[in-house]
Structures are given as C-alpha cells and as structure tokens.
Design a protein that fits this description.
Blueprint: H1 2-23, H2 27-38, H3 44-54, H4 64-117, H5 147-155, H6 163-176, H7 180-183, H8 186-199, H9 201-207, H10 215-240, H11 251-278, H12 286-294, H13 302-311, H14 315-344
Helix pairs in contact: 1-2, 1-4, 1-11, 2-4, 3-4, 4-13, 8-9, 11-12, 11-14, 12-14, 13-14
Length: 345
C-alpha cells in the first residue's frame, strides 16, 4: 500500500505537469494543480465508502463484520500514509511556490520604489553623483565571460544538463526544503502512536480488548473517531462554499484536473493493481485490491485546501477546483466503486 499510494502521487504529478504545459497554467497556480492531481482524499472518504460497501447484502467481500474490520484497517492505513506524503511532498512544493511568488512580488515593489525615488519633483531624473570608476577588487575585462561563452557552456552537447539530472536536482531541492515541524503534524504523530500500539503486543494488550486494564483509552478514542468523520464532512462542505465566488482559474484547467482524477488515474490504477497481482506483489484478497484501486479514483485531498490557507496563497483558486471536483465525485465514485467490485469479484 505505501508503494501504491506513492505511485498515485508520482503518476498524478506527471499528468499534472502535462496539463500545465498544455493549458499554460500561470506559475502561481502550477503547484496547486500538481497538488490537486497528486494527492487524493485517502482518509475520511475511504472510511465512509468501504464500511458502507461491506454492509451491502450482495457485497462480494464476504461476511460484513469481517469485511468492516479489515476495511477500516485498510482505510486507516491509507489515511496515515497519505497524510505523511501530503505533508512532505505537496506542502513542500506549495510552500516553495508561495515563497518564490512572495520574492517576486517584493522585487517588483522594490523596483517600483526605486523608479519612484529616481525622479525629482519636476519629473527630471536625478543627477548621479557617485564615481563611475570600478572598485579595486572588481575583475578585469579579461576575466569576464561573454554572453556567447555562457551560451556555449550551457547549451553544448557535452555540458548540457540531462533530463534525469534535472529531475534529481528538483528532488534534491524539495528534500532540502522539507519542513520537519509540518511533517510531524498532529495527524502524523497520531499515526506513529497508532503503529507503536498496533505493533507492540504488550502495549496493545494493555489498551485494546475487553479485558484490557486501560481499555477506557481505546473506548474514548473510538468515540472521538466516530464523531470525527461527520465533522470532517461538514468542514469539507463549508470549505466548498468558498468555491461559489469568482476566480481567475481557467475552466480548461478545472476540466483537466477532473479528467486526470476521474478518468486517467482510475484506468492506470486498474493496470497497476492487476499487474502487481499478476507478479505476486498483491494477494488475492478482493477487498484489498478494491481498496488499492479506489485510491486512484478519489477527489483531491482537503489537506491541499488547508495548505493554501496556511500559506495564504491560492485559497480562492483552490476552492473553485475543490467545488467542481467534489461535485463530480458523487457520480464518479459511484461508477468506479461498482466497476472495481465487478473486476475483483
């Protein structure tokens, strides 16, 4: 599952890059488009859909109680892994874009102020009184490199940067800009604690079970978890209302994001999961294969909207994209859920 979710991010990012080139998306919206295409809602939607499918009378996943138990485990693991990927990759990408845009804005303001200060009240330019001689430590004309030499050094066949090297440079830049504080968000800390409790048998026996001495902790956590799903759904609805406002997002970009998330990615997901099953990397569990395929057909993650609010960049544009993608999600998820069940049954 970690590899499968990583593939959804990689394939989604590659398709978003193609969309950006075809639609000539503005630079300040490129990271938002990549985030919407790469990160799916791997959390609360799976926690809603999978148990609902398990309780159906004609469900292909067997006994409803066993299906619900395993389904909640798969959905929880998907939510945990997705949160880590979002706050490492998507947040870092969008933060770098927001910082670059802020620097460009500051440079434009500085240029405008210099132009304003460079003119007198009569409209004539100021007289430059500084010496025109070069500083003592400045390089001589012989040491300087001409523009033609720079062009040759950059674009000659031997010195031209390869495509793989460019990808490696971009990945290195993203890795260096990862915010460790955001990586250890409350959701990530909860994931780590959950893994420790689940893996360590002595701790698990203390908290989980009818005879566990600290079962009150599990009961309280389970109660909060059940209330969290409808609360998150209400928050999603409240955030989507912002998308009713006007924005400068090109409709072609919105259609492109919808096409990637609801047509291209699900088709690729079927191929990936079936290939993994053919080569023995995925077992014959129908519910597990259904979960892996469904991870490719989900709408964009709401954490993308949270990131835009934290960075105060692209909030209205994100709301527009979220509104239309979630409006189409009701039809898309119904179709793909039915189709995936037919494939794995």
């Amino acid at each position: 599952m970690p590899v499968n979710i990583l593939l959804t991010f990689i394939i989604g990012s590659a398709l978003a890059w193609v969309l950006i080139k075809l639609t000539r998306t503005p630079r300040h919206l490129q990271s938002l488009v990549i985030g919407c295409c790469a990160a799916g809602n791997l959390g609360n939607l799976l926690l809603i859909i999978i148990p609902a499918v398990c309780t159906e009378t004609n469900s292909p996943f067997g006994d409803s109680s066993t299906c619900s138990t395993y389904g909640e485990a798969y959905a929880s693991l998907s939510m945990a892994i997705g949160a880590m990927y979002i706050w490492t990759y998507v947040y870092t990408l969008m933060r770098m874009s927001a910082e670059k845009r802020a620097e460009e804005t500051d440079s434009k303001d500085a240029t405008a102020s210099l132009n304003a200060d460079g003119a007198t009240s009569s409209g004539l330019p100021k007289i430059i009184t500084e010496p025109l001689l070069a500083p003592e430590n400045s390089p001589s004309p012989k040491d300087c490199i001409s523009r033609d030499e720079i062009y040759q050094m950059t674009f000659n066949g031997k010195t031209k940067t390869s495509f793989l090297k460019k990808i490696w440079q971009h990945m290195t830049t993203i890795t260096e800009n990862i915010d460790i504080k955001k990586l250890f968000a409350p959701s990530t800390i909860a994931v780590i604690i959950g893994f420790i409790i689940g893996v360590a048998s002595p701790i698990r026996k203390l908290i989980i079970g009818d005879d566990a001495p600290l079962r009150v902790i599990y009961t309280a956590t389970d109660l909060l978890g059940e209330a969290a799903i409808p609360c998150i759904t209400l928050i999603i609805g409240a955030n989507l209302l912002r998308g009713l406002k006007r924005s400068n997002v090109n409709p072609v970009v919105i259609i492109g994001v919808i096409t990637i998330r609801y047509i291209v990615l699900p088709l690729i997901g079927i191929v990936v999961v079936k290939a993994a099953h053919h080569f023995g990397m995925v077992g014959s569990d129908a519910l597990y294969q259904f979960t892996l395929m469904l991870q490719y057909a989900l709408p964009p993650a709401m954490n993308v909207g949270t990131i835009t609010q934290l960075l105060e960049a692209g909030e209205s544009e994100c709301s527009i994209i979220m509104l239309w993608t979630y409006a189409v999600a009701s039809l898309s998820l119904t179709f793909w859920s039915t189709f995936f069940m037919w494939i794995v049954s």
